[in-house]
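sry for the spam today, last one i promise. struct tokens for design, 357 residues
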């Protein structure tokens, strides 16, 4: 009885490479990479929380001092002591003990009490303002990213064409401050043409809820601030994507794809734009994190009840608890956005998956 010998052909170009090892051993979960990233994000979160605790306390005065000044000495010393115990600002307690108490509060989901919002819980104050910022600025950031990246890819693909005029125009608009563009839009579209309201999130007397009247009010009042954010931030996405496209189009694989007779649309979106968009994803993750800090002026111009305006009020009142709660939301937004960017990077770039497998 003769034994049959099976010969397995191996591509010599893959011998000794990561692709060969992955093919032989199956898909390997990059536990070392996952553990390293988890440790990095955990340390970053702890460092941000620590800085978030100590930084406001470097300021002169505190929330109780500001509240006492506004009350013009009407509070007794016992009332002041009670307020300091409530806000964790008792000067007789060591700073390290206040820090430990603050960490314990965070572990139990307690962000403290806000003195600038009528002694309301910080979580409730943030929850009432955050949806407005996410709904308006978050949506505007996504829209500007998608439009700017797509437009930049097309401009880079058709370099030297008529579409190049968009680059200096959008770049110039990106150098104009938010409040100038917002004031111009208010003067033209609201005061002159009367197309959109000049400010606020909805008209007084409208009952908030999932009804047509309220939703229409929210859309009409949010149109001008959203348009302002898109116009101002569009230039950065267009310029960044166009420059990356010019670099990618000189690569050999683009020349090979075109030499094989592939349609230009497929080469543009499946090969060139897919690789050129990778740096844009990291920039987008950072842009998501800085939504709060970048909207303070815009919300002031349009009197929009977002979290940026709430942060400004908390800073003016030296409301430590509310400031720390908003900064914590900002840190979490940055970390989550970067985690999503890492996942998107691995999906769009096969080399990342091979290296970490």
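last one done:
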């Amino acid at each position: 009885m003769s034994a049959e010998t099976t010969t397995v052909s191996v591509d010599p170009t893959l011998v000794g490479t990561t692709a060969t090892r992955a093919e032989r051993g199956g898909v390997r979960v990059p536990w070392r990479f996952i553990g390293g990233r988890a440790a990095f994000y955990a340390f970053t979160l702890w460092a941000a929380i620590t800085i978030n605790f100590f930084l406001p306390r470097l300021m002169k005065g505190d929330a109780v001092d500001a509240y006492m000044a506004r009350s013009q000495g009407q509070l007794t010393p016992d009332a002041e002591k009670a307020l300091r115990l409530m806000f964790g600002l008792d000067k007789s307690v060591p700073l390290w003990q206040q820090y430990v108490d603050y960490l314990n509060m965070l572990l139990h989901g307690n962000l403290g009490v806000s003195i600038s919002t009528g002694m309301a819980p910080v979580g409730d104050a943030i929850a009432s303002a955050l949806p407005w910022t996410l709904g308006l600025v978050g949506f505007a950031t996504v829209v500007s990213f998608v439009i700017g990246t797509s437009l930049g890819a097309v401009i880079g693909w058709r370099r030297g064409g008529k579409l190049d005029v968009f680059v200096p125009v959008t770049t110039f608009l990106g150098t104009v401050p938010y409040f100038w563009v917002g004031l111009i839009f208010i003067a033209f579209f609201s005061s002159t043409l009367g197309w959109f309201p000049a400010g606020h999130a909805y008209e007084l007397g409208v009952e908030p809820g999932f009804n047509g009247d309220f939703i229409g009010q929210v859309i009409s009042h949010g149109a001008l601030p959203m348009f302002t954010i898109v116009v101002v931030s569009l230039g950065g996405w267009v310029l960044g994507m166009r420059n990356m496209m010019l670099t990618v189009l000189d690569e050999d694989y683009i020349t090979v794809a075109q030499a094989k007779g592939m349609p230009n649309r497929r080469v543009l979106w499946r090969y060139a734009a897919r690789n050129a968009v990778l740096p844009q994803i990291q920039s987008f993750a950072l842009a998501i994190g800085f939504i709060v800090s970048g909207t303070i002026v815009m919300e002031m111009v349009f009197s929009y009840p977002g979290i940026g305006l709430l942060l400004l009020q908390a800073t003016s009142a030296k409301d430590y608890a509310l400031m720390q709660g908003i900064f914590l939301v900002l840190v979490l937004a940055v970390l989550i956005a970067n985690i999503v960017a890492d996942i998107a990077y691995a999906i769009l770039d096969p080399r990342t998956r091979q290296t970490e497998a």
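The first strand starts at residue 113 and ends at 114. ok im logging off now
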